Here is the input.
Amino acid sequence: VNATFNGKYFDGETLQSRAVIVAVTAGRLSVTGVEPPVECSLSEIRASDRLGRVPRFLYLPERRTIETEENDAVDEMLAFQQRGRPAAFVHWLESRARVAAIATVTLVVSVAAIIYFGLPVLARRAAMAVPASIEKNAGEAALAAFNRYTQPSQLSHADRVRVERLLDFLALKQRLTYHPRVEFRSLGANVPNAFALPGGIIIMSDQLVRLAEDDEEIMAVLAHELGHVERRHGMQGVLRGSAALLVVSTVTGDLSTLTSFSGTIPFMLLQRGYSREFEAEADDYAIATLHTVGVDPRFFISILEKLEKARPVVGQDYSYLSTHPNTSDRIEKLRRARGGP
Ligand SMILES: [Zn+2]
Here is the structure.
């Protein structure tokens, strides 16, 4: 088989796609248009199911993904890949026939739904329906990718245990059905920040832990991050990125694309943070949580004020407030939640 087709290449770490040419020759697939060129054996590749004219995803090793509209070329490649594996091939044909039948109906419905409800609403529903095990995998993949941007924590054992206990306390009081865990990392010279990944992983920078003087301030930050976890903002962010991704993962139930793309979450968080709307939701969740555990929201205000002061004046800003803007609006809302000025 000698086939070439166009596609969009995702490296599994950033959100940028690159227009590439994919060539299939002698049992190998090569991608040109990226530096260095990518090459792998056909046996290492998996593809999403065919769904009418919805673009296909090719899953390469190391969470690298290719999106392409050239369905026929992909089918040809898969047929070649399956040659010599007759049983698997029959099974593949059967499953494809079944999927194709369901797809005709569901595709029309989902395209209509995207037009009618819009991407954010569907992304939310889909994110909420993602099974806990997949979310956990996505969180681990995101954490592995995060390590590229961070250094190991220098915090003392006592400091770590203190934060872990506070998180356990919040999880218990909120009766969470999963066990959230905190990962400590250093983000460089003086960068206080915290991030929430799918499945309940919260990353806290050493600098943020040191900045907080009271346990209540740490609880406020943790409660906000738990809000991101609870509302599945990481998965929603990934699903909002592409209509094709949303259709493929919801209609076929094939969640490989979701796990592949979760490696881009750290990039998304460091570059622009969650959307304003997600931040507002996480703040609401934090206010409710602090109320449940009997902590005055003034501690949330005081840590935000400290973060504002700690913001670097020059240079690359990866601090909490670069990813969590509008401090004054947020403080205003927290003051209202306290029932006073
Ligand atoms: Zn946030």
Observations:
- The chain has a mean pLDDT of 86.
- The pocket of zinc ion is lined by residues 224, 228, 274, 279, 282, 324 (CB under 6 Å).
